Amino acid sequence: MTEAMQVARLSGSLGAEVRGISLSRVGTVEADAIRSLLMEHLVLFFPSQQLSADEHVAFGRHFGALEGHPNLKNPFSEGQPEIFELAASRGGVADEWHSDITFQSKPSILSILNMVKCPAIGGDTLWTNQYKAYAELSAPLREMCDGLTALHDADPHGKSDLMTVHPVVRVHPVTGKRSLFVNEHFTRRIVELSHEESALLLGYLTRWASNPRFSVRYHWSEGTVAMWDNRCTQHFVLNDFDEERIIQRVTVMGDVPEAASPARWEPYASGVNLGATSRHDRQLNAFLGRREANLESNRREES
Ligand SMILES: O=C(O)CCC(=O)C(=O)O
Ligand SMILES: [Fe+2]
């Protein structure tokens, strides 16, 4: 079956459309071939699949353990807890650049989306290649970013207290390549920089990460399945349509992102006198305080 796959690249930076394979009848040989295609193209599209929910979950399981969405409502909670659905009529349009679930210490590895219903015009999705976004930074900026970490939170889901810290540059566990790992949706603060410096650098990096030169834009048809690697891409849905748009997703969870270099600097600490501007450090300090308390209680348990 794998010989029959036809692969057509969709842009100079990432993305390929794959035909000649039925995802409802994939075995380990085909899953391995798809995995290596994904490592090469970062996002794959399989038109005309029309997968049932069971077939969607079975396909996803070839690539690792699946998990429902930690924060968003799942209409399948009875029969299919692994499937997560976004419907435009319920406000489900992911129109900010992100990679999935980065507010968790183990963010999603892969996402596999089934386009259930889509508008005839509009509602395209864009992806960007974060290997390229990293590689095409200047050498001094790459070197600085290698040693930084950033705070991510689930504020877009109304849970700003749910937070974690990841390296700003991560090393992909399969390809060994470095990618930029900050996004405008979930990343709030660079831990080692002041609030103002962080806002400036994060603003720059998140804008740079979405440079059209690193991107692919996909126009959907119903029954298409897309799969992408969250470790080295970001995505964004165009909120420019009138009709209903429904996607269902399964999500392959997650490993702890590996940093490009060991931590080089301490977290930013404001001066001795708390002033009006200290409010910008409140969230970071709350996170660091909580992390210190956890470390302390682990130390006590071990001794
Ligand atoms: O609706 C889409 O095209 C993508 C939605 C999204 O961000 C996701 O499923 O992770
Ligand atoms: Fe997403």
Structural overview:
The chain folds into two domains: 2-120 and 218-252, Clavaminate synthase-like (Double-stranded beta-helix), CATH 3.60.130; 129-209 and 258-269 and 278-295, Double-stranded beta-helix (4-Layer Sandwich). It is built from six helices and 16 strands. It has helices at residues 28-41, 53-61, 130-135, 139-146, 195-209, 282-302; strands at residues 6-9, 16-19, 43-46, 84-87, 110-117, 125-129, 149-154, 159-167, 169-171, 178-180, 187-190, 215-218, 225-229, 233-237, 246-252, 258-259. It has a seven-stranded mixed β-sheet. Strands 12-6-14 form a three-stranded antiparallel β-sheet. Strand 9 and strand 10 (178-180) form a beta hairpin. 2-oxoglutaric acid binds next to strand 5, strand 14 and strand 15.
Summarize, please.
This protein is of the alpha+beta class and 303 residues long. The protein has six helices and 16 strands. The structure holds 2-oxoglutaric acid (AKG) and fe (ii) ion.
Distance between the termini: 57 Å
C-alpha Rg (nearest Å): 20 Å
Largest sheet: 7 strands, mixed
Portion of residues within helices? 10-25%
How is the largest sheet built, in terms of strand order? 1-2-3-13-5-15-4
Q: SS-based structural class? A: alpha+beta
- CATH level-1 class of the largest domain: Alpha Beta
Cofactors, ions and other ligands in the entry: 2-oxoglutaric acid, fe (ii) ion
